Amino acid sequence: MNTILIGYDLNRPGQHYDALIDGIKELGAWWHQLDSTWLVKTDLNAADVRDRLWALMDSGDEILVIDVTGRPWAANGFESYDWLYNSL
User: Fold this and answer.
1) Phi, psi of 19, rounded to the nearest 5 degrees
2) How many CA atoms lie within 13 A of 23 on its CB side?
3) What does the DSSP assignment read for 29-66?
4) Confidence (pTM)
5) Are 87 and 3 in contact (CB under 8 A)?
6) By the 8 A CB rule, do 64 and 8 touch?
7) Collapsing DSSP states into helix, strand and coil, what is residue 3?
8) How far apart are CA 51 and CA 63, in angstroms?
9) pLDDT digits (tens, 9 = 90+) for 33-86
10) Angle between helices 18-25 and 46-54 (to 10 degrees)
């Protein structure tokens, strides 16, 4: 199981991205405490996640997908710190 970091900028004002949010949530267990940053536990690799989500975005948007499985990390100030601790 991979832990994937997803970050995006939605650059077209006034758009609704419910399909994108649903697409991220469908990938697996997720954490979302920052506006456009998610962590997801999934069997997919980073490129597959990127391709799946890019299909739900506008061509002027931006997406960054990084496999952070087993990487060192630090955080502070999140109510859901336990999810991070148990998932990274």
Assistant:
1) -65, -35
2) 16
3) SEEEEETTEEEEEESS-HHHHHHHHHTTS-TT-EEEEE
4) 0.85
5) yes
6) yes
7) strand
8) 10
9) 888 999 999 999 999 999 999 999 988 899 999 999 988 888 788 777 788 788
10) 150
